[in-house]
């Protein structure tokens, strides 16, 4: 009995997506800087950055103060890496597209945040 071609293609597509999105094994080695990656979870830094001019993504460092940043990943990758832990991504309201926003990494103290909130 022969399966229809569309059913076979559908099965292959779902199999590929399952393999692409499944959790990483316990002994999985994370990729270093500038190594080719598929998703953020593959990298030690947690940032798989897609180069704008080529169709490859590489592990990159998170943003330092003043560098460009992005708030959310799109299909498991960033166009600009998020900021380091002690920084935040500051963006203009007009720069926000849906839930993804592009801005610059900036250090914001707790005192400044409290002043903006209450005054």
TrEMBL record:
The keyword Signal applies. InterPro entries: Colipase. One of its GO terms (cellular component) is extracellular region. Keywords: Signal. One of its GO terms (biological process) is response to food. It comes from the Eukaryota. The keyword Signal applies. GO terms for molecular function: enzyme activator activity. Residues 1-23 form the signal peptide. This is Colipase like 1.
